[in-house]
Write a structure and sequence with these properties.
The structure holds two protein chains of two kinds. Chain A is α/β, with parallel strands linked by helices. Chain A is 43% helix and 20% strand. Chain A is built from eleven helices and twelve strands. In chain A, helix 7 packs antiparallel against helix 8. The longest helix of chain A has 26 residues. Chain A is globular, with a radius of gyration of 20 Å. The relative contact order of chain A is 0.19. By secondary structure, chain B is of the alpha/beta class. In chain B, strands 6, 7, 8, 9, 10 and 11 form a six-stranded mixed β-sheet that branches. A five-stranded mixed β-sheet of chain B has the order 3-2-1-4-5, with helices on both faces. In chain B, helix 1 crosses helix 2. Classes of the chains: A alpha/beta, B alpha/beta. Chains A and B meet through helix 2 and helix 3 of A and helix 1, helix 2 and helix 7 of B. The structure holds zinc ion (ZN). Zinc ion binds next to helix 4 of chain A.
Chain lengths: 345, 232
């Protein structure tokens, strides 16, 4: 299968520059043929937002505007290519912070215009699903992806390229958001994921039995009750060790995520299970995910931490597939902060 | 040298192309807050009208504000990416200068004011000089009443221009020495941007793309709240 743009086929030689600015990472990457990553540059703004305990949209937008060209220039330099070698420019158009998205979309459209190549709009969530293919192009369908980040928690059945079914999602907080809120409550700082991951290493995950919300019930998630349970437990047991609280909280989140991912794979006859999103960098989740897949005879696909967190290689990859399927996106395209993953009915 | 000018500091999206023969094409649309959608198609249209290929552009000029944060970033990010891809220099020009330039043939004090939202204005004062205007003050942020009392205190004959002046015109009504310029000139002009940039280009007064950022004049709310907390 091979689509074409201006009579030129979209194939293994097609070089896509990807740009990602949906949240607090400014990223650019050059990817050939949808899977061959020639360069991937990510500039994180974590330090700019840390003192506020979360991403501040206006600060993120200003930083993206300063970083977008240096980051893009470095991605080109590291790939050993010139702008004129680029065959298409892909950018995240949503979901994400509107002001942040618009910086990347504006720069990407301008580059496409100046180089006279197609522009491709990419859905950030779809890109996370494609992150797996960058490291394992032979991944088998149907595939269940557990996508867990600060903004999203969802289970997606990937039946083929561009063919998704949303199996379940969070009804309230995203898993990463729960990590941030609990870390803040425990005084562990921001971002919460790595902070809890590291302190939990020295705690007892079985010391406190926090609720596993909806664990036996369908494929949707709920984490707000768990956060409340943590707060209540610490208030009634002020001498409790922070390590134990962190470890027990993390165990409760991971138990639910893994149980639901296994159920989804079983119910839909998936051949493989993949992880994506920032929370996929969590050590306990990675360990339990691999154990569960081994037990259930599922092919486990665990992207590297660099490919789990926001990056532009996944944008370039998803852009390549999209260009092949649907062709270029018109240049009057904007950004949509609430853009949904296009799913099958 | 052909110059592409990009202007997105207010509700308007504008771009123009020109050089030593003057402005060849200029496109403005003010349908409101669709900067990102309209800008690139407007540039394509301006190129067509001017019969210019984008690859012939030798300089990218951009309105750096003050103005709407999101609009400015769309314009500045687009301008920087074009300059980077075309390997040409950039020039940043403030929005308030672009408002003053088209009304420069006046002996009065020219005051330009852009709507800053939240009941405030960005404003500056100008005086006609040979070939253009000279800014007499820094870019300021203040309420319409602040500006009105400054104008009153100056005792000068004033020409007041800009969407901010239009929006808060009741603050300037009844001021005998202040004339409000009508809506035709109330948004920064992309054509003025090209003309001003051309004059600076002749002096090789270029900016590097990494030096060009919007003039925000207002810190992000989170930082303001942070620094006022506990008297920090
Ligand atoms: Zn993400």
């Amino acid at each position: 299968m091979s689509g074409s743009v201006d009579g030129k086929p979209v194939d293994d030689s097609t070089l896509v520059l990807g740009i990602e600015t949906s949240c607090d990472e400014t990223a650019a990457a050059c990817v050939r043929g949808g899977t061959d990553v020639l360069s991937s540059v990510v500039s994180s703004q974590v330090e700019l937002h840390a003192r506020f305990g979360g991403v501040v949209p206006e600060i993120a937008s200003r930083a993206h505007n300063e970083l977008i060209i240096p980051v893009t220039a470095r991605a080109l330099l590291e790939s050993g290519l010139d702008g004129e070698d680029i065959d298409a420019v892909a950018a995240t158009t949503g979901p994400g912070l509107i002001g942040a998205l618009l910086v990347g979309v504006s720069a990407a459209k301008a580059l496409a215009l100046a180089w006279d190549v197609p522009f491709v709009s990419v859905n950030h969530l779809e890109a996370h699903l494609y992150a797996g293919f960058l490291e394992e192009p032979e991944l088998q369908f149907p595939l269940v992806v557990l996508l867990v980040s600060g903004g999203h928690t969802m289970l997606v059945l990937v039946e083929g390229h561009g063919r998704y079914r949303l199996l379940g999602q969070t009804l309230d907080d995203a898993a990463g958001e729960a990590f941030d809120k609990v870390a803040r409550f425990l005084g562990l700082g921001y971002p919460g994921g790595p902070a809890i991951d590291s302190i939990a290493m020295s705690g007892d995950p079985e010391s406190i039995r926090f609720p596993r919300s909806m664990i036996d019930d369908g494929l949707d998630f709920s984490f707000s009750g768990l956060k409340t349970a943590v707060v209540n437990h610490v208030r009634t047991n002020p001498t409790v060790g922070t390590e134990d609280v962190a470890a027990s909280f993390q165990a409760a989140v991971v138990d639910v995520l893994v149980a639901k991912a296994r159920r989804a794979a079983r119910q839909h006859g998936a051949a493989a299970l993949a992880l994506g999103g920032g929370v996929a960098a969590n050590s306990l989740l990675r360990e339990q995910f691999l154990g569960a897949c081994a037990e259930d005879g599922l092919h486990a696909f665990l992207p590297s931490r660099e490919m789990c967190t926001d990056n532009a290689a996944m944008i370039a990859s998803a852009g390549w597939y999209r260009l092949q399927r649907e062709g270029p996106t018109p240049l009057d395209c904007g950004a949509d902060p609430n853009q949904r993953l296009t799913v099958l009915p | 040298m052909l110059i592409l000018g990009i202007e997105t500091a207010t509700m308007q999206v504008g771009c123009a192309i020109g050089g030593h023969e003057g402005v060849l094409a200029s496109v403005h649309s003010a349908k409101g807050k669709r900067h990102a959608e309209q800008l690139v198609p407007s540039i394509e249209f301006a190129c067509e009208q001017a019969r210019v290929e984008l690859s012939e552009i030798g300089l990218v000029a951009v309105d750096v504000g003050p103005g709407l944060f999101t609009g400015l970033r769309v314009g500045v990010a687009t301008a920087k990416a074009l300059a980077f891809a075309l390997r040409v220099p950039m020039i940043g020009v403030p929005s308030l200068d672009l408002l003053a330039f088209p009304v420069r043939f006046s002996n009065r004090l020219i005051v330009t004011a852009v709507d800053a939202r939240r009941g405030e204005l960005y404003y500056a004062c100008y005086r006609q000089v040979p070939g253009g205007v000279q800014r007499l003050t820094d870019h300021q942020l203040g309420s319409p009443d602040d500006l009105a009392s400054e104008l009153l205190a100056s005792g000068e004959e004033v020409l007041l221009v800009g969407d901010g002046a239009q929006r808060y015109q009741e603050a300037f009504e009844g001021m005998a020495k202040v004339e409000l310029v009508d809506t035709g000139n109330s948004h920064p002009s992309a054509a003025a941007l090209v003309e001003l940039a051309h004059a600076r280009a002749l002096r090789e007064d270029f900016g590097r793309p990494d030096e060009i950022e919007p003039l925000y004049l207002r810190r992000p709310d989170a930082e303001i709240n942070w620094s006022t907390r506990d008297g920090r």
